[in-house]
């Protein structure tokens, strides 16, 4: 039987939209979903640049796994505007075991397709991707 990760295709759109977020700041966030029947990762939702962090977390389903990318803007202590691109592996406790396994086994390969990720977070409940966590990880990586 083929390994779930090796059999997972990544739709071209996943990379194209990520490049637009990274280079042109066209989007604030991208939420990716694995289509199990087609065995591929697709773009599920795009966040406009004006969308805030609350809007992003509101779009993560409470009981299904997702991958997501978030472009976080912040000011350093020297008042210099900066941004960090976060990769978030969202795997809520309430999601199906099979789904968790597929997302976990495909994550590294998918993440490699997205060149420019600066911080990775894994979360099983909303507190693990609270804005306070994002802030501390963004600042800590500088």
From TrEMBL:
UniProt keyword Zinc present: no
Molecular function, one GO term: actin binding
Domain ADF-H: 5-139
Gene Ontology CC: one annotated term: actin cytoskeleton
Keyword terms, alphabetized: Actin-binding
GO terms for biological process, alphabetical: actin filament depolymerization
A Pfam family recorded for this sequence: Cofilin_ADF
Highest rank taxon of the organism: Eukaryota
InterPro entries, alphabetized: ADF-H, ADF-H/Gelsolin-like_dom_sf, ADF/Cofilin
Entries under PANTHER family matching the protein: COFILIN-RELATED
Family designation: Belongs to the actin-binding proteins ADF family.
Name the UniProt record assigns to this protein: Actin-depolymerizing factor 2
Gene from which this protein is expressed: LOC113725510
């Amino acid at each position: 039987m083929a390994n779930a990760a090796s059999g997972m295709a990544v739709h071209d759109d996943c990379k194209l939209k990520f490049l637009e977020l990274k280079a042109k700041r066209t989007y604030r966030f991208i939420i990716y979903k694995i289509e199990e029947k087609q065995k591929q990762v697709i773009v599920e939702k795009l966040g406009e640049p004006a969308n805030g962090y609350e809007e992003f977390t509101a779009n993560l389903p409470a009981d299904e796994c997702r991958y997501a990318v978030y472009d976080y803007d912040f000011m350093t202590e020297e008042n210099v505007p900066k941004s960090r691109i976060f990769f978030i592996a969202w795997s809520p406790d309430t999601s199906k075991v099979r789904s968790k396994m597929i997302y976990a086994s495909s994550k590294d390969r998918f993440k490699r397709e997205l060149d420019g990720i600066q911080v990775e977070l894994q979360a099983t409940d909303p507190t693990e991707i609270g804005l306070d966590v994002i802030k501390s990880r963004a600042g800590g990586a500088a």
